[in-house]
Amino acid sequence: MDWTEFYLIVFFTAFFFALLTTPVCKRLARKWEILDVPKCEQHKLHANATPLLGGVAMFSAWLLTLLLAALGRGIQAEYFPELTSGLKGVPLILPNFITLILCAAASVALGLYDDCHSMKAWKKLIGQIVIAAVTAAGGGVSITLFIGIPAVSYLLTVFWIVLIFNAINFFDNMDGLAVGTSTIAFVFFAFAAAVNQQYFVASLAALSAGAGAGFWIYNRSPASIFMGDSGSHLLGYLLAVISAKVTYYTPGVSTTKFTMLIPLFILAIPLLDTLTVVLIRLHNRKPIYVGDHNHISHRFMHMGLTRPQAVTMVHLLSLISGLAALPLLWGDARTCFLLIIQGLLIFAQITYLQFILHKKEFS
Fold first, then answer.
1. What is the Cα–Cα distance from 22 to 56, expressed in whole angstroms?
2. How many helices (H) and strands (E) does the chain have?
């Protein structure tokens, strides 16, 4: 068995578990009345009360796959020694990984509490910062940007995790949108890690992609279950951690430091959407944490697309942006520069179509 086969096994194992855990969580949500009620907030326009335990479903599938992998280590060592040698450094980072698992669980718990009790935005932000701070301190996650000052690296890491927490939370505004976009991103991060022979990180990304894809089956339009804040917090946390743990620049191997832009390309759509809606809300003198219908998916609907079509359009843009990032792994500075210009032009074109050809009053 080679590593590509192993990543596929991890992906489909998590996918299978998610197919099993999601219906269970749907029933539990209805039994415990953990539901998203229509029009309980101005921006919520779905027709029926919908179960909100999607985050628990994905995390359960994610954790079950990890437990299965741990239980199967003996079989793996006996029959697949090449995989064992590739993961021989895992025991050394086990304390860090346990921290990541606990912080992922805390992310789900924080989001679930908000789903049930509607936390104040500042309280939720404090919870996100605490989780990010613990991750940066004990999770083996560090963003340096070649600065080399530990305190700066720590603050950058905390900022990145909190940013992605909220970017995915903001992005969860249509059936299948956030989980589909996140799953696409996980696949690209898995590829980037695999190219750099980061077997553990690539496996973690494949695992997360599988859990997301399995849940998407139930969350796509018309969704029978929502992931809620518990799901958006889980996906945001895993995206932030995995994107930070991939090695994009290796001295003596990489031809340019532009490779550090890869996570920005892969996550470009949710990041740009977050920036846009924040600017619109500030322009309209509205709190940035109050939901509205000014997201990129809503603007596609303003152009005449249906909700499923708008979601598909966003997913296609995510694929285009992620594919544009991959040549950065082996291209030189000129290649990277041209790809950056191409990416900016694509987003300028989308912005032109949405804001100029189809002018709408921001609400």
1. 8
2. 15, 2
